Amino acid sequence: MNFKAELVACFGQPVAENPTGVMQEAAFAAAGLPWRYLTIEVAPGGLVDAVRGARAMGFRGFNCTIPHKVAVLPLLDELSKEARIIGAVNTVRRQGDRFIGENTDGKGFLRGLTHDAGMDPRGKRVVLLGAGGAARAIATELLLAGVAELIVVNRSVERAAPMVEDLKPHGPIRFVPWRVQYTVEPETDLLVNATSLGLYPNVDWMPDVDLTRARCLVADAVFNPPVTKFLAAAQARGLKTLDGLTMLVYQGVIGFTMWTGVAPDEAVMKRTLREAMVES
Length: 280
Description:
This protein is of the alpha/beta class. It has helices at 20-31, 47-56, 81-86, 105-116, 133-144, 157-167, 229-236, 244-260, 266-279, and strands at 6-12, 35-41, 61-64, 78-79, 91-95, 98-102, 125-129, 149-154, 173-177, 182-183, 190-193, 209-210, 217-220, 241-242.
């Protein structure tokens, strides 16, 4: 019997913390595709060899997690517009003999915002908490989508100020230092937590914000647990919320289509990922 499976992979550390493989394998099976998603632990010093091996073995693409999202850039043949702006890659797709770097984190957030929360970001006033990799990806997509104002709130000026300066050519963005509890004003349309506060196992942590006057949609990039303490607090005030699990599912959906050329069963991916979160 002659059987050949197309291969994609995740290169990262530590691999045990990455639930994407289970989700992608379930999607391949549901689509009837003989594909495999290999979760491979790659130390920083081994990234060059890992990418070279992926080329040699005909991998259709791969994901990169920390600490490889920036280090992989010079090893690729081309970057998408969004990946160039963000300065990091989480998804690589093969086009002929070339590896193309993409960033689907912000795209996954944007799809969840429009499809699940029903919000068109164009013309909206947004407050974004954090200035790390997830924040930069989300900020980039929101600016490209035409928000009216994007306020980045972060405690570290050294980290946030350069990010804001880099993104200013792409839309109306400004930085507000997070010195004390941040008060969300009623004119805010969307509040996004792009920090890691509340991520398992630190489930009791949450951003120090005052939601008393808020009337906005509240989103969290933290995916485990799906309903963070931050989202629970927003829900208790009657605010609509969007969880980080949605962002993770949709970035996986986008990656799946980039690799295979077909649309996956999103319900299967969402259910599989949610079950993986419960078990972890």
